[in-house]
Amino acid sequence: MTVKILSVDDEMDLELLLTQYFRRKIRKGEYEFLFAHNGLEALSMLLKHPDIDIILSDINMPEMDGLTLLSKINEMRNPAKKCIMVSAYGDMGNIRQAMNNGAFDFATKPIDLDDLSITIEKAVEQINFIRQSQQEHNQLETLKNDLAVAGEIQQAILPRIFPPFPEDEDKIDIAAAMTPAKDVGGDFYDFFRIDDDHIGFVIADVSGKGIPAAIFMAVSRTLLRATAIKGDNPSDCLNYVNELLCQESVDNMFVTLFYGIYELSTGKVTFTNAGHNPPYVLKTNGEINVVQSKVNLMLGAIKEIRYADNELQLQPGEVLFLFTDGITEAFNINNEAYDEKRLEAVLPKLVGSNSQGLINGVLKDVQDFVADAPQSDDITMLVLKRKA
Predict the structure, then answer these.
(1) Which among 259, 279, 350, 382 counts the fewest CB atoms within 10 Å?
(2) What share of the chain is helix, strand, coil (3-state, %, to 5)?
(3) Residue 140, φ and ψ in degrees, nearest 5
(4) Distance, CA of 97 to chain centre
């Protein structure tokens, strides 16, 4: 890019000196010189040419001196504009004041053009550095805004209206929440009606974090929902989804997932656990049981593996509590993990709560434990309570 230099001096012969000395750079389009003869003319020129990079200004001028001009330029708050001040050799007081007021450098009269050329080159280096930094900052701001929008979109695709099945509110109470560690997360949950007597529900945790995990999360959720609403058993559903994810997996990404089908009329849950944290059943007397299941690998890791179904029975008032490892692996400032023992200790205290109240209670306990430590992973919970 051409560097635009504004020379401000009431001595007319300086214009000839500068254009003669820098003629090669002017001819090559590297430099372009503009000229003003006092501070007022210079301000007018700066308004007409806001892309001026360097101001080479005399200090002692009529109508508006160089120090006043410098203060006006500072008001523009553009760090990419550099001022080089010029004055007589003995005028050190004004030169010092100019440097204290933000001038980039100075030159003394009679001007040593070789030295001035070096000074201009140094100014150009700083201008380029500042512009590059500003460009990178703008790119980061754009990325930050994009991530914020992506986070909003990601939250929007997760069910957020509770109760999700108001027509069956007397039979089932479902709630869920996902708190990403970054702008976007890799965890997700979902629930959907399969038929009048069956509701599908899922909680999952994608390997990794940030944008790649968020994209893989969206793909996994879409594939699972599109397959599950057909009504196949959880294992058949995951067999099919696993093959698709293995074909599309990038950078060896995978997802741990718990998918279940709840039968409204009986409280029976048919499920497949694909490498995910085993959930808990919270009984009405405060007893908690870890849900045991057949061992299955995560989705998207190995082709042609077969998943197995499991069953459990919920009694009226009992709760199925599902979560991701963002809870048990939440660390405090002493690098201690919240772990399963703390979770198993707090769940019985929440007996009698509805599903949302149980989520809120666990989340508060985790937050109290973590305190001021930064969140290290996405925190996601899904709670299903049989009411009748």
Answers:
(1) 350
(2) 40, 25, 35
(3) -65, -40
(4) 44
Q: In whole numbers, what is the pLDDT of the chain averaged over residues?
A: 92
**Which residue is it, tokens 């201690």?**
336
Domain with CATH 3.60.40.10 in the chain: 158-386
Instruction: Output DSSP code: residue 177.
Output: E
Q: Show the tokens assigned to 326.
A: 């963002």
Structure token pair of residue 259: 């998918």
- Cα distances from 84 to residues 66, 105, 174, 296, 358, in angstroms, run 10, 5, 69, 71, 67
Using CA atoms, how far apart are residues 292 and 289, in angstroms rounded to an integer? 9
Please check whether residue 342 is in contact with residue 149, taking contact to mean a CB–CB distance below 8 angstroms: no
pLDDT tens per residue across span 230-279: 888 999 999 999 999 998 766 678 999 999 999 999 999 999 999 999 99
299, β-bridge pairs: 255
CATH 3.40.50.2300 intervals, the chain: 3-135
DSSP string, 53-120: -EEEEESS-SSS-HHHHHHHHHHT--TT-EEEEEEETT-HHHHHHHHHTT-SEEEEESP-HHHHHHHH
Q: Kindly report the pTM of this predicted structure.
A: 0.70
Mean pLDDT of the region 110-129: 93
Q: Is the dihedral of CA 69, 72, 73, 74 positive or negative?
A: positive
Q: Which residues contact 256 (CB under 8 A, 6 or more apart)?
A: 204, 205, 274, 275, 276, 277, 298, 299
285, two tokens:
């007397």
- Which residues lie across from 282 on neighbouring strands? 288, 319
CATH class of 3-135: alpha beta
Superfamily of domain 158-386: PPM-type phosphatase domain (3.60.40.10)
pLDDT, tens digit, 9 for 90 and up, residues 59-103: 988 888 999 999 999 998 898 899 999 988 778 898 899 999 999
Report the share of the chain in percent with pLDDT over 90.
Answer: 73
Q: Edge-to-edge strands of the sheet including 255-263?
A: 187-195, 198-206, 255-263, 268-274, 310-313
Question: How many residues are given for the chain?
Answer: 388
